[in-house]
Specification:
The chain has five helices and two strands, in the order H-H-H-E-H-E-H. The protein is mostly helical. Strands 1-2 form a two-stranded parallel ribbon. Helix 3 packs parallel to helix 4. Helix content is 46%, strand content 6%. It has two domains: 51 residues, no CATH class; 63 residues, no CATH class. The termini are far apart.
Length: 142
């Protein structure tokens, strides 16, 4: 097999820089326990590491409460959690078919189940959406 040409960096970078492999190897060898699972010293150390990371990221993103910061597997997982967690019965959503599946699929299921209404804004041959179409699609429950 020849040299690999990897074109899926939207999903993940590959290969990782050697420093990442080295760090993760060392990290799992020293901290490979489940924080929050028990109360022995190593799990408490790891829980503190997780919380200090949560605080640092909250500060980095100008958040106000580290307990509101959530970790997820990836952007698709995050979008699913946000959509499932924020939308309520009777809500209205504006989107388009050029949106990513991680947005379209949960919206489709919520619409199909009769929980929400979705307006799909058309796009032109170049994938652009007319902002006036978005403006016109707004409702009181959007």
């Amino acid at each position: 097999m020849g040299d690999l040409i990897y074109l899926d960096n939207a999903a993940t970078t590959y290969p990782k820089p050697e420093a990442v492999y080295d760090f993760m190897n060392e990290f799992y060898r020293k901290n490979g326990v489940n924080p929050g699972r028990s109360g022995y010293d190593k799990t408490l150390e790891c829980e503190e590491l997780v919380f200090s990371t949560r605080k640092s990221l909250t500060e980095f993103f100008n958040g106000t409460n580290p307990y509101y910061l959530t970790f997820s597997y990836n952007a698709s997982d995050s979008l699913n959690m946000i959509i499932q967690g924020m939308l309520r019965n009777g809500d209205h959503v504006i989107t388009s078919n050029v949106e990513h599946n991680s947005v379209l699929r949960p919206l489709y299921h919520k619409m199909h189940d009769g929980e929400i209404d979705v307006t799909y804004i058309p796009f032109d041959d170049h994938g652009y959406i007319d902002p006036d179409d978005v403006r016109k699609a707004f409702r009181r429950n959007t």
